[in-house]
Write a structure and sequence with these properties.
Distance between the termini: 40 Å
CATH topology: SH3 type barrels
CATH class: Mainly Beta
Largest sheet: 6 strands, mixed
Mean pLDDT: 93
Strand order of the largest sheet: 3-2-1-5-6-4
Structural class: alpha+beta
Low-confidence stretches: none
């Protein structure tokens, strides 16, 4: 399963899955640290950040929004 961290509320990570459903994950159930917009994956019951997909997503977001901030 794969999703995007939408926000973190205290010890709950709000995650939007690929099918656009929303799930709530206890931050203790995530290996390592995550922040908003990180891509996380669940493997064998453990959630963790997908570094490569997160980097790719952030680059894509910068690319599609760059013209919005330039005059």
């Amino acid at each position: 399963m794969k999703g995007i961290v939408d926000r973190i509320e205290e010890d709950i990570v709000v995650c939007v899955l690929e099918d656009e459903s929303v799930i709530y994950i206890n931050i203790e159930d995530i290996e390592g640290t995550v922040e908003e917009n990180d891509v996380i994956v669940e493997e064998d019951g453990v959630w963790k950040k997908d570094e490569a997909e997160t980097k790719e997503r952030l680059e894509y977001m910068k690319e599609i929004t760059k013209d919005m901030w330039e005059n």
